[in-house]
Design a protein that fits this description.
The protein is of the alpha/beta class. It has helices spanning 2-21, 29-40, 57-68, 90-97, 123-131, 136-149, 175-189, 202-211, 228-233, and strands at 46-50, 75-81, 99-101, 113-116, 119-122, 153-159, 168-169, 173-174, 194-199, 218-222. The strands form 3 sheets. Strands 2-6-9-1-10 form a 5-stranded parallel sheet. It has a 3-stranded antiparallel sheet with strand order 3-4-5. A two-stranded antiparallel ribbon has the order 7-8. α2 (29-40) crosses α3 (57-68). It is globular. Residues 1-24, 102-112 and 229-234 have low confidence and may be disordered.
């Protein structure tokens, strides 16, 4: 009996190891089909992907982009993965999302630009944004409108959105809530940009969803662990 229990324990441990080591993208046809159908419709809602850590959300998004949105003449996809980035304040947010571009030979500092993948911002305007004299979201909207005018569909993806929680700017304004309000305007109101926000923090998603009253402006979609029967027979 003791020997049988020991063998049974070893087998269970091996099954658990196998379960953890299998690629999380196996048999994601249903999720890929959902995303494909979602992108075919004009921007109307923010899409929230939620699920536990290591359930395959990030891999699913990369596979989806690679399969359906790799044509840069039609799509402008910007994927911000905040999983391993420390963002503790608004300046960190600017530094993380923006990168410096421009002619290094020029000495006029105002000729240099910051480029948030989609968005460009002069250093002068960057200072105005930090001081509250210029609205960052106005700059972002103008760029999204420009892409649409050129028949390019923009998409913004922020993975592990909870990394931006508890960040404030211009006094006590919460960065996450302001971003969400902007994304609602870009989807439901202006239909300029597809937005996908992902998080493995269920409490954060629930708090954000309830506090921002997003029930009519968002779509929640769960990406869970694969069933064991798929993992063990695949």
């Amino acid at each position: 009996m003791i020997l049988y229990d020991s063998v049974k324990t070893v087998k269970m441990e091996l099954l658990c190891m196998e379960y953890k080591n299998v690629s999380p993208f196996i048999d994601r046809d249903e999720e890929m089909s959902f995303l494909e159908n979602w992108i075919k419709v004009g921007p109307k809602q923010i899409l929230f992907l939620y699920g536990p850590k290591s359930s395959g959300k990030t891999t699913l998004l990369y596979k989806f982009i690679d399969k359906y949105m790799s044509d840069e003449t039609k799509y402008n996809v910007k994927f911000f993965n905040l999983r391993e980035i420390l963002i503790s304040n608004y300046d960190d947010f600017i530094q993380t999302f923006f990168q410096v571009v421009g002619n290094e030979e020029k000495t006029d500092k105002f000729s240099r630009e910051y480029n948030l993948k989609i968005f460009k911002l002069s250093i002068e305007n960057e200072k105005k944004i930090k001081s509250g004299q210029l609205n960052l979201f106005t700059v972002m909207k103008n760029r999204l409108q420009e892409l649409n005018d050129n028949n390019v569909q923009p998409m913004i993806i922020i993975d592990e959105l909870q990394a931006l929680d508890f960040i404030y700017f211009n006094g006590q304004r919460e960065l996450v809530k302001e971003l969400i309000n902007f994304f609602v305007a870009m989807t439901k109101e202006s239909h300029l940009c597809h937005i996908i926000l992902s998080s493995s923090d269920g409490y954060f998603i629930e708090k954000l969803y309830n506090d921002s009253k997003l029930r009519k402006t968002t779509k929640l979609y769960e990406v869970d662990y694969l069933p064991k029967k798929i993992l063990f027979t695949g």
